[in-house]
Amino acid sequence: MNIKQVSEEKGISADTLRYYERIGLIPPVNRTTGGIRDYTEEDLRWVDFTLCMRSAGLSIESLTEYIRLYCAGEETILARRDLLMEESAQLERKMAEMQACYDRLQKKIAHYNEDLVKGDKIFA
To answer: 100, 92 in Cβ contact below 8 A?
Structure first.
């Protein structure tokens, strides 16, 4: 598959695919004699893996380091665990941010309820 076909199938821009390859999120894709990227099944698995991990919120830095280890033959169960732990920590941070937003919203609702009980109808 060429980059346009992969882009259309995966719903990601060709520029993003090139960027991911340039920074190491996707190992270098073989090119035809004409210089066109020729994605193999293995390359597509890397694209899927990268898209999945990015959609889960994993940082580019963590994912790049994991892929670097894998390509260097140093990827281990420890590296996989570290990747998942980083993903878990990022999700926990996002959940804490969401909880803080939720708490602020609940305080505003409580404030407006108090105003309604007092008979303040400015916003009614």
So the answer is: no
Say which amino acid occupies 33: T
Indicate the pTM of the whole model. 0.55
Dist. CA 102–CA 21, nearest whole Å: 38
* Of the candidates 95, 6, 90, the residue with the CA atom closest to the CA atom of residue 44: 6
Q: Are 31 and 37 in contact (CB under 8 A)?
A: yes
Spell out the per-residue pLDDT of the chain, length 124, in tens: 889 999 999 999 999 888 888 887 887 888 888 888 899 998 898 899 888 888 877 788 888 877 777 777 776 777 777 877 887 887 888 889 999 999 999 999 998 888 777 776 655 4
Contact predicate 20/7, CB 8 Å = no
Question: Rounded CA gap, 14 and 6, in Å?
Answer: 8
Contacts of 43 (CB under 8 A, 6+ apart): 26, 27, 29, 30
